[in-house]
Write a structure and sequence with these properties.
The chain is an alpha+beta fold. It has one domain (2-139): Gcn5-related N-acetyltransferase (GNAT) (Aminopeptidase). The protein has helices at 12-18, 33-49, 102-116, 131-139, and strands spanning 2-6, 55-62, 67-77, 84-93, 122-124. Strands 1-2-3-4-5 form a five-stranded mixed sheet, sandwiched between helices.
């Protein structure tokens, strides 16, 4: 049995530790695992310390009450039409809970959060090298829209 609940101050250590998993794939040579984790930690700390109705952080727990994953979703304006929508900033599942439907459950919660606000879409980003995450997202009906290219100039 899996339950979802809003994150509380006592979850801070778990949330911060989970960001380490966000770079658990072949990352681009110009990035570091710490850089990726630190960026997401900054965002989640800000959202946790200054909650707004435009964002939520959820924790997934097993039937034994053990944290199994987390979700951080925010409101963003669509670049092309200016309408608000939801964006998954962080979605991460613990190693021990991987493959047990935690990610799917968290994404369904993000979709419900967005629908309850009247949003017509939910976006998320994934590194090209994160084949596992991309396969999960595509299996759940997400489609790639924009691919970002990068060229080092120095």
């Amino acid at each position: 049995m899996l339950t979802l609940r809003p994150a509380v101050s006592g979850d801070r250590a778990f949330l911060m530790a989970m960001t380490e998993r966000l770079a658990d794939f072949p990352i681009p040579a110009w990035r570091t695992a710490e850089q990726i984790a630190a960026a997401d930690r900054r965002q989640m700390i800000t959202a946790a310390d200054h909650p707004t109705p435009d964002a939520t952080i959820l924790v997934a727990e097993t039937g034994e009450g053990l944290p199994a994953g987390c979700l951080f979703v925010t409101t963003r304006q669509d670049y092309f039409n200016g309408r608000p929508g939801a964006h998954v900033e962080v979605l991460v599942v613990s190693v021990t809970a991987q493959g047990r439907g935690v990610g799917r459950t968290l994404l369904e919660a993000a979709e419900a959060w967005a629908r309850n606000r009247g949003y017509g879409h939910l976006t998320l980003s994934a590194f090209v090298g994160n084949a596992h995450a991309r396969a999960v997202y595509e299996h759940l009906g997400y489609e790639a829209e924009i691919v970002t290219y990068r060229k080092a100039l120095a």
